[in-house]
Here is the input.
Amino acid sequence: MKHFDRFLPPELTHKLRQIRRLQHTISRVLPEAYRDRVKVGEIDGDRLTLVVDQQAVAANVRFQTDALQRAIRREHGIDIHRIRIKIAPRSGPSPHAHEGDRRQRPPASAATKRHRERLRSVLRRLDEH
Here is the structure.
């Protein structure tokens, strides 16, 4: 399947594009230090869920919710009445872990690598639209 993105349901394609556009807006509004640490998790009606990697980031983002709501309303025409912030620590070894405690992932198979590259390609094309 060379172009498996054709097989995605239109609703999913629309939702993915909407999330990418919202991510772009949120990244632009937030201070630079938080741009890579805040991701759009879900939009459900008038509720937006943001995912951050630390409690301290969540606390600072809470102060930005009014600015985020205004930007989303202005740029996307969506009235967000509630922004929910979830904390999901980044995966991977803890920066405080000892060298001997770190586990390494087994190398990815050729099929997994091809699958990941196809997924990247689909996401790039969605991002272009």
Notes: DSSP finds four helices and three strands in the chain. The domain at 1-90 is CATH 3.30.300.180 (GMP Synthetase; Chain A, domain 3).
